[in-house]
Write a structure and sequence with these properties.
The complex is a heteropentamer, with 2 copies of chain A (about 220 residues), 1 copy of chain B (about 270 residues) and 2 copies of chain C (about 260 residues).
Chain A: H1 2-45, H2 54-69, H3 72-78, H4 80-87, H5 93-117, H6 121-129, H7 134-168, H8 176-186, H9 190-218
Helix pairs in contact in A: 1-2, 1-5, 1-7, 1-8, 1-9, 2-5, 4-5, 5-7, 6-7, 7-8, 7-9, 8-9
Chain B: E1 12-18, H1 21-36, E2 40-46, H2 51-57, E3 63-68, H3 69-79, E4 84-90, E5 94-97, E6 112-116, H4 119-131, E7 136-137, E8 151-153, E9 159-163, H5 168-171, E10 177-181, H6 182-187, E11 196-199, E12 210-214, H7 222-231, H8 234-244, H9 256-265
Parallel strand pairs in B: 1-2, 1-3, 6-9, 6-10
Antiparallel strand pairs in B: 3-12, 4-12, 5-10, 5-11, 7-8
Helix pairs in contact in B: 1-7, 1-8
Chain C: E1 2-13, E2 16-28, E3 33-38, H1 44-51, E4 59-64, E5 67-68, H2 74-81, E6 84-87, H3 99-109, H4 114-127, H5 143-156, E7 161-165, H6 173-190, E8 193-197, H7 201-207, E9 210-215, E10 218-224, H8 235-241, H9 250-253
Parallel strand pairs in C: 3-8, 3-9, 6-7, 7-8
Antiparallel strand pairs in C: 1-2, 1-4, 4-5, 9-10
Helix pairs in contact in C: 3-4, 3-5, 4-5
Classes of the chains: A mainly alpha (about 220), B alpha/beta (about 270), C alpha/beta (about 260).
Bound molecules: adenosine-5'-triphosphate (2 copies) and magnesium ion (MG) (2 copies).
């Protein structure tokens, strides 16, 4: 009976996987593209950064902390009007990507800041001595040296987001995590849940493997 | 609270409950009365709907207060637990509402309908639609286990989106129609009866009454009697009247064990 | 042409403030080679870093080619810096770029077009005899090879001023000769002004026109290297100029 | 009326804050103490690490990924038997710290691994050349050099966990996040929720500030 | 006493495999000072790193004090290494420890008791004339000061073998004299065996008993420094021995 149920649930599971895919495909690029500049600003405006600006740093810091303070569920609810404005609806996979992005950006900005702090001050000085503009220093020096660390952080984030989709179910966002909970937990179809969790584990292993390989390929220090 | 160990001492009544108004406020009212009688009420609020039954079953709490009878019956069957519906608290009627249409006949083909994601009420919404002839469910499908998979015919090509109970009100403007509990319709300023596209006919349908659950050995116990008296006090009645309006279904005198047993024997639909 | 006037730079040391460069005046005429020598910790690196404003002076002015750099805005400072090459004591190569990419970076920053870059990278690497290591990452290079990449990076840009902080500390005599010959050549041919910190007197002798001797943040003596015999006045200069190592003099020289 | 409700909720909010405190006080030390050795093993057994051991690395990697694959709710449920064994109950603040710890350990292990990857290989070699044992190298060299990065990562984790307690509410774990959700989401007491969120924001700002200061104090590279 | 036999080490270079050390035999008697010179990239650092097995040889044996290190287990290797001091070309100081803490670390690793450590740290820092910078972090030290901390760290342990990779590359002549005098002193007094890579011939002359000349991974010549005049046979040795810098010889020496 359980096997039968699992078979019956397979198409729906495939759909859920697709939803997770959509969420990641939308969230991750947006998060990376927004978090890198924010993280760079956080770092460069901070004390010890190349252009310290206590005011800007405090504001950015506060905004990032603000977003990170919200439990995701509250963020999701609080953002419904904005979500509706952006994607036209407050339910479904697309709708959930909006708070997911906001959360991801805040999360990743901190990672970016942290990675930049690890870059050797010497190479930044070298760029300055060559007369590099701020943007050029960031793009051609800082991000190049921080690349392996950033790849590692992005991997950590993507993995988190695979299981995060569990909360997306609250507004019909779907995804494999939501699927596992709805079937396995609420409908007691343990077999289906186990399969769903196995799929998630496989997905996470894959992402982590790809991430680790990327880090190793990017890191030229050894 | 910082919960330790199992079902507490003689004069402490421990209960696990959901933290929504129809559960929270009566408990707080009951607390006063119980304390006056020398009881201590230890409430643990949870938001999950699975663990409270397991916790009572395992003796980690004396009672729970979060579910309707239909859900409890099915839960017991599916999980091998034996939580007994001790007494009713209040009826919890529901309906299908819309901010876009006034009547179910206006609902266009292909309409998007919001369902609660929790299994206790997910099937309930589908049965409402089936009852009104808008779609067909598998023969013999029980309310609590019914899901979209049980739809055998969907002539109007409705699509469904499942959201959390609590977000049903906020997401209603984004769908063509959605399931709401009566109290939710009240909260967003809808006319409970007038605005409904579909409404559960029996305002006070037996399986959807909220029950207080406990282990079988609590039937008739001193704690159960004290709790029942406190949750069915005049002050609680006043609260429900204020909360729902005069039609508040309070079938306090009836015996949930017998009624739900009968309903279950009849096929649990 | 470089002119420092009353330049002072203070740091916070482990026990209290520390004047790393103390009221230094220095004039380096265009096209000349200025050597700087001094004991470890005398303030040589700090002084050279003050010239391109990697360290901002606490007081005093720093003029390069007639403009006081302490007064110009960021954009102008960057424009100026692009024409001031620098070889760092610690190389400061990017670990994630190959030797060639490290050199190319300097060209990209200077706005050299893609087409021209490859040729100039190859040329610069050839000068330091590293053509065969163009594709190697710094971690896979020997110490001397890393230093040579740093030298190539500073040269690639054809700067008008070149600041060299111990540019040959990690390389063997042959490479030293090769690097110094090249420096001398560009100095004479293109009129590049060079400031060179070193602790190797033979390096100074080979190419410097004038040597500033630093001690405790101050320039305590100037020696002209115009062929006439050197007559150092300060004890420090006398010691530094004499690069024979006489271990027997341990008692007198060991200060610890 | 709202002001009145807020006032009435204050004692409960104080209690919730206390619960968050308990959760953090239990979870963070355990997470740090367990994640550091796991992260060190992950790093040292990995390719490029000082004692590469593909087998051990794969196993550790898989276990960490396994835990990180589970949506927190499923982890919480799946662990109930273990939780009951350890703290004697499956509901309440103490009960929720068990899955919270497990999750935190997996999460932080990755951070530790990532931070160790940033330590310059040269100092590790120096320790080896001095004849340092593996443990000594890790303790006196690796962790010393990774200290600022680790402090940053721990800060990120603590901040995450402040709002994480929202999920703890599923099984009556309590905490300020749960308090906010119960009042704001389940009881529609928006005023109370706003106050709770403000408290969380203040808490997060405080933690972040302390974290940033610590990082800056520990980092001696500039 | 150090004996290398047929030691070979290969790396993967940017274009194919690269033999950094090629079938080298080397015998350094106990208590003697072995110099190693050679062009940049000749394999000097690799060779010295092979002696304490920081690089494992692809073939050949490495014996220190009679034991082939390639055959001993980890614990024994560590015990051995504790008695082999090393000064790295890139210093490799811990950025988050002060100068004193960096030196103390070596003592802690060697198992020196807490009471004894403070005195020995102070002593080692005094040898390199850095007592006033005991509390400074490496980032706040000048290049030469950093190198001196690295020297103090290697000396503090009173090793029986000392491997020095360009130990005076960043320091001025006075410090060089001071360091070399100390090395000579411990060498003579305690019979410490020293291997010293350098590109400064005056350093070699001052303390080495024998100089190995490396080229392309091979030891191509040995020069004994027993006071008799040097008669280098290979061209490389001739070039290296002559530390006058003659820029006119550019044409012949510039290989790039
Ligand atoms: N980890 C590595 N991977 C690949 N190639 C390496 C590595 N380490 C060194 N090499 C190469 O091996 C050769 C010898 O390097 P080594 O560091 O021993 O030279 P060296 O004689 O110490 O030179 P220098 O005087 O410049 O320090 C060089 O060509 C270098 O590029
Ligand atoms: N960032 C800093 N903070 C505090 N003190 C510093 C800093 N940089 C340098 N110093 C100190 O200033 C003094 C001068 O340092 P500088 O690097 O200029 O010396 P130097 O002449 O280049 O020495 P070396 O020949 O050893 O490289 C030294 O005592 C050093 O410790
Ligand atoms: Mg210097
Ligand atoms: Mg070397």
């Amino acid at each position: 009976m359980s096997a039968e149920r699992i078979l019956a649930a397979l198409p729906e599971m495939a759909e859920a996987l697709g939803e997770t895919g959509i969420m990641l495909l939308i969230t991750v690029p947006i998060a990376v593209l927004s978090a890198v500049p924010i993280g760079v600003l956080l770092w460069s405006s901070g004390p010890g950064g190349p252009s310290p600006s206590p005011r800007l740093h405090q504001v950015l810091n506060a905004v990032v902390n603000l977003v990170r303070s919200f439990p995701f569920l509250i963020l999701l609810i609080a953002m419904i009007p904005i979500t509706r404005l952006i994607v036209g609806t407050s339910v479904g996979t697309l709708a959930v990507t909006v708070p997911l992005c906001v959360n991801a950006v805040a999360y990743l900005s901190r990672f970016v800041e942290q990675n930049l702090l690890q870059v050797s001050p010497g190479v930044i000085e070298a760029a300055q001595a060559m007369g590099a503009s701020r943007l050029r220093t960031i793009w051609s020096v800082l991000l190049v040296e921080a690349r392996p660390g950033l790849a590692g952080s992005i991997t950590i984030m993507v993995v988190s987001f695979i299981s995060y989709s569990a909360i997306a179910g609250l507004v019909g966002g779907g995804g494999i995590g939501d699927f596992a909970i709805r079937h396995g937990y609420y409908r007691y179809e343990t077999g289906v849940m186990v399969v769903a969790v196995l799929v998630m584990i496989a997905l996470v292993q894959l992402v982590q493997l790809a991430g680790n390989l990327t880090v190793r390929r990017l890191d030229k220090r050894l | 609270g910082l919960a330790g160990g199992a079902a507490s001492d003689e004069r402490t009544i421990s209960i696990i409950a959901t933290d929504s108004p129809p559960y929270h406020d009566p408990l707080e009212i009951a607390r006063d009365q119980l304390e006056a009688e020398g009881w201590r009420l230890d409430v643990r609020y949870v938001t999950d709907i699975v663990q409270p039954n397991h916790a009572v079953s395992a003796g980690e709490a004396d009672f729970n207060f979060f579910q309707h009878g239909a859900y409890l019956q099915t839960f017991n069957r599916d999980n091998g637990t034996d939580v007994v519906p001790l007494f009713y608290a209040v009826g919890s009627p529901a309906g299908v509402y819309s901010t876009r249409y006034d009547d179910i006949s206006q609902l266009p083909d292909g309409a998007r309908i919001a369902l609660p994601v929790d299994p206790a009420n997910n099937g309930r919404a589908l049965h409402l639609l089936a009852g009104a002839g808008r779609l067909k469910l598998r023969e013999g499908a029980q309310v609590v286990t019914t899901s979209q998979r049980d739809i055998v015919d969907n002539p109007h090509r409705y699509s469904f989106v499942e959201v959390d109970q609590q977000t049903l009100t906020q997401t209603l403007p984004d769908v063509d129609a959605g399931f709401l509990f009566s109290r939710q319709a009240i909260e967003i300023g809808l006319d409970v009866e007038g605005a409904a596209l579909l409404r559960e006919e029996d305002l006070d349908a037996v399986p959807y009454r909220i029950v207080v659950g406990g282990r079988p050995d609590e039937v008739g116990s001193a704690k159960a009697r004290a709790l029942q008296a406190a949750l069915q006090s005049p002050r609680v009645r006043d609260f429900f009247k204020q909360f729902y309006g005069e039609w508040a279904p309070l079938p306090w005198a009836e015996d949930p064990q017998a009624q739900l047993g009968q309903w279950w024997k009849d096929g649990g639909r | 042409m470089i002119t420092l006037r009353g330049v002072t730079k203070r740091f916070t040391g482990p026990d209290g403030p520390l004047t790393a460069v103390d009221d230094v005046d220095l004039h380096v005429p265009r096209g000349s080679v200025q050597g700087i020598i001094g004991f470890s910790g005398a303030g040589k690196s700090t002084l050279i870093r003050l010239i391109n404003l990697l360290e901002r002076p606490d007081s005093g002015s720093v003029a390069v080619d007639g403009t006081d750099l302490t007064t110009v805005d960021d954009v102008e400072l960057r424009r100026r810096r692009a024409k001031i090459g620098m070889i760092f004591q610690h190389f400061n190569l990017l670990a994630n770029l190959t030797a060639a990419q490290n050199v190319e970076l300097a060209l990209r920053i200077a706005g050299v077009g893609k087409a021209a870059r490859a040729a100039r990278v190859a040329e610069a690497l050839a000068v330091v005899d590293l053509s065969d290591k163009a594709g190697a990452y710094p971690a896979k290079l020997s110490g001397g090879q890393q230093q040579r990449v740093a030298i190539a990076r500073a040269l690639a840009n054809e700067p008008s001023v070149l600041l060299c902080d111990e540019p040959t500390s990690a390389v063997d005599p042959r490479t030293t000769v090769s690097v110094l010959s090249y420096l001398k050549e560009v100095n004479e041919r293109l009129g590049i002004t060079i400031v060179l910190v070193t602790h190797e007197m033979n390096v100074v002798r080979a190419i410097a026109d004038d040597v500033a001797v630093m001690d405790g943040g101050k320039v305590v003596e100037h020696l002209r290297l115009d062929g006439s015999p050197l007559r150092p006045e300060t004890e420090i200069a006398q010691f530094l100029i004499d690069d024979r190592i006489r271990l027997r003099s341990l008692e007198e020289t060991h200060v610890g």
